[in-house]
Amino acid sequence: MNFMDEQCFPIHRFGRRLGTRLEGTAACQHLLEALQRLGQPGRLIVSLEHVEVLSGSFADEAIGIPYGRLAAGEYGDRFMLLRSPSLDLADDLAHKLDRRRLAMLCLLGDGWEVLGQLPPPMRETLALVIEQGRTTAKRLAQGLGIRHNACLHRVSRLAALRLIRREAVGVAGPHPSYRLFSLL
């Protein structure tokens, strides 16, 4: 998926050791402003490069809260991903997202992982969307070997969590028809 707009948000500009909720509040405001300036469709990549410590308090305030607002639909056709040099560095954020019942894509070198709460069937569906890059719910259901209704439910949840981009293209029979895009 080629996004019309993509920005990188280097969180290390707030320090290499990010620990307090108060520090996170300042970073949160800057991150929300960056989301607002982003074109649509747009992708904001929050980078943990050059960060030594990321506490749960800072991560929740600076990243978890804005991501929750994004998932609630406040920022339109915009998406946020995390880039981290290691999964360990993002571990506290993963726990905070899990408590909020959110999930976020984390870029790790050439791979990716999901931080937060996402059951195995949803992970399987997400992996197939990422592998295909661009697909439809019908093709996805065939690839997963599941009914179209079940696939639509999974796709709806992945789109609500801001893990994929979903674009309505009409109605095919009793079901809406969607184009699905990977965020990677």
Helix-strand layout with pairing:
Elements (H helix, E strand, L loop, with lengths): L4 E6 L6 E2 L2 H17 L4 E6 L5 E2 L1 H16 L6 E6 L7 H9 L3 E6 L2 E6 L3 H13 L1 E3 H8 L3 H13 L3 E9 L2 E8 L2
Parallel strand pairs: 1-3, 2-4, 3-5, 5-6
Antiparallel strand pairs: 6-7, 8-10, 9-10
Describe the structure.
With 184 residues, the chain is α/β, with parallel strands linked by helices. It has 2 domains: 5-116; 120-182, Winged helix-like DNA-binding domain superfamily/Winged helix DNA-binding domain (Arc Repressor Mutant, subunit A, Orthogonal Bundle). Helices cover 41% and strands 29% of the residues. The protein has 6 helices and 10 strands, in the order ββαββαβαββαβααββ. The strands form 3 sheets. It has a 5-stranded mixed beta sheet with strand order 1-3-5-6-7. The chain has a 3-stranded antiparallel beta sheet with strand order 8-10-9. Strands 2-4 form a two-stranded parallel ribbon. It is elongated and about 55 Å long. The model has no long low-confidence stretch (mean pLDDT 92).
Short description:
With 184 residues, the protein is α/β, with parallel strands linked by helices. Helices cover 41% and strands 29% of the residues.
